[in-house]
Amino acid sequence: MNIQLVRHSTLFIQYAGQKLLVDPMLSPAGAMAAVPNTANTLSNPLVNLKINITELLEADAILLTHTHRDHFDGVAAELLRKDIAFLCQPQDVEKIRSQGFQQVTPIEYEFEWNGIRITRTTGQHGIGEIGRLMGPVSGYVLQAPNEPTLYIAGDTIWCEDVAQALTKYQPDVTVVFAGGAEFLQGGPITMTSEDIRQVCLHSPNTRVVVAHMETWNHCFLKRPELRAFVEMHQLQDQVCIPEDGEYFH
Questions:
Q1: Domain ranges for the chain
Q2: Which candidate in 58, 179, 195, 197 could, as Cys together with 191 as Cys, close a disulfide (CB 3.0–4.6 Å)?
Q3: CA 206, 25, 110 angle in degrees (round to 5)?
Q4: CA-CA distance, 178 to 207, in Å (whole number)?
Q5: How many other C-beta atoms can be found within 10 angstroms of the C-beta atom of residue 220?
Q6: Which of 112, 131, 114, 113 is nearest to 123 (CA)?
Q7: What CATH number matches the domain at 2-242, 3.60.15.10, 3.30.310.10, 3.30.420.40, 1.20.1730.10?
Q8: DSSP string, the chain
């Protein structure tokens, strides 16, 4: 397994001989409007890609957690080849097909793709009314012979769904989407520093990799702050906070 953090939640994963592109958001900096009703009005994304898009378009499949524009944008929809294998949650099938993609496969629970078992997990994209408004989101567990078990939690806070997935699949590596994204009302809709600490406490044997940082206007948790928190709680041997473009294992 080899994983590259492209930017935000976009990951380029080489796993069991296949190349998977997770949550492709390929717009240049400032190309999209700010998320409204937040304490920051900067246009999105906040930073440019550090990777040549051509490399990402060589992926064998797309694995999509949900269709919010910071996870799947118009540039990706335009540039990706229309016959690429597109794996997603059932709720998003029609929206993706409406953009011309021909091989869209919903993963209700578990799907075998080119020797990789992909199991869909659930989460909470916030709590209460804000969580309801954000809609359904998914995560995925990847398993294959001679490969570590990888859990991509998706846009979720720490909750029972995540705890159950960690307990059931005992992943070697867990990618969490952090940034502590929030609106002017309601609580965080992605993981905070404390959420990440809870993941570590629950599953001390999983390597926690933190993505979804410093790219979107309502993500206020920054890498330096999170690194300081991780060191304060002596979690630096378990938690990896990669920069955009960085590889991790």
A1: 2-242
A2: 195
A3: 50
A4: 15
A5: 17
A6: 131
A7: 3.60.15.10
A8: -EEEEEETTEEEEEETTEEEEES---PPTT-BPPPSSSS----B-SS--SS-HHHHTT-SEEE-S---TTTS-HHHHHHS-TTSEEEE-GGGHHHHHTTT-SEEEE-SSEEEETTEEEEEEE--SSSHHHHHHH---EEEEEE-TTS--EEE--S--S-HHHHHHHHHH--SEEEEE-S----SSS--SS--HHHHHHHHHH-TTSEEEEES-SSSTT----HHHHHHHHHHTT-TTTEE-PPTT-EE-
Structure tokens at 37: 């009703």
Contact 74, 46 (CB under 8 A): no
Tell me how far apart the alpha carbons of residues 76 and 13 are, in angstroms, rounded to a whole number: 17
pLDDT digit string (tens) for the chain, length 249 residues: 999 999 999 999 999 999 999 999 999 999 999 999 999 999 999 999 999 999 999 999 999 999 999 999 999 999 999 999 999 999 999 999 999 999 999 999 999 999 999 999 999 998 888 778 888 899 999 999 999 999 999 999 999 999 999 999 999 999 999 999 999 988 999 999 999 999 999 999 999 999 999 999 999 999 999 999 999 999 999 999 999 999 986
CA distance 34 to 65: 21
Q: Of how many residues is the chain composed?
A: 249
